[in-house]
């Protein structure tokens, strides 16, 4: 993959602290959590995003599942598994995107204990 010189940024609504739930029809939804807005630049790698999530939200970014939506179908949560998916998020969202972060319960519990 060639390095990009694009200066495109996406305003991302990061949904954090909730959980992914699969309904009886097999559709994945995100329940709970809070929303924070951050900007990310095109060309970022998934591993870099995981590090940023760790810094921004005090979570183990490597232990989290990350999903995102596309502007033409925001009901479908797409797995952010590799850099190709990161490129898709920028290609199919013009100015903003929703990014959903689901971490193991131990990460969330540890963060809540630190906040007390």
How would you characterize this protein structure?
The chain has 116 residues and is an alpha+beta fold. It has a single domain, classed as Ubiquitin-like (UB roll). It is 28% helix and 40% strand. The chain contains three helices and seven strands. It has helices at 46-57, 83-91, 105-115, and strands at residues 9-16, 19-22, 28-31, 34-41, 64-70, 73-79, 96-103. The strands form two sheets. The chain has a five-stranded mixed β-sheet with strand order 4-1-7-5-6. It has a two-stranded antiparallel sheet with strand order 2-3. The chain is globular, with a radius of gyration of 14 Å.
The computed structural class is alpha+beta
Terminal Cα span: 45 Å
Range of strand content: 35-45%
Helix content: 25-40%
User: Helix count, per DSSP?
Assistant: 3
Using the CA coordinates, give the radius of gyration.
Answer: 14 Å
The residue-averaged pLDDT reads: 86
- Integer count of domains: 1
Instruction: Work out the number of β strands.
Output: 7
CATH superfamily: Phosphatidylinositol 3-kinase Catalytic Subunit, Chain A, domain 1
CATH class division:
Alpha Beta
Shape: globular
Question: How would a textbook summarize the main sheet?
Answer: 5 strands, mixed
Strand order of the largest sheet: 4-1-7-5-6
Short structural summary:
InterPro entries: PB1_dom (IPR000270). This protein has 116 residues and is α+β, with helices and mostly antiparallel strands.
Record the SSE blueprint.
Layout: E1 9-16, E2 19-22, E3 28-31, E4 34-41, H1 46-57, E5 64-70, E6 73-79, H2 83-91, E7 96-103, H3 105-115
Parallel strand pairs: 1-7
Antiparallel strand pairs: 1-4, 2-3, 5-6, 5-7
């Amino acid at each position: 993959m060639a390095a990009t010189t694009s200066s495109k940024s996406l305003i991302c609504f990061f949904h954090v602290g909730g959980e992914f739930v699969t309904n009886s029809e097999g559709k994945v939804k995100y329940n709970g959590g809070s929303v924070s807005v951050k900007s990310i630049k095109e060309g970022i790698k998934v591993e870099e995003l995981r590090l940023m999530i760790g810094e921004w939200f005090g979570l183990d970014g490597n232990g989290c599942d990350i999903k995102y939506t596309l502007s033409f179908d925001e009901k479908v949560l797409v797995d952010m598994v590799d850099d190709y998916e990161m490129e898709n998020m920028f290609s199919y969202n013009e100015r903003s995107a929703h990014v959903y972060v689901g971490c193991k319960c131990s990460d969330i519990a540890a963060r809540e204990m630190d906040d007390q």
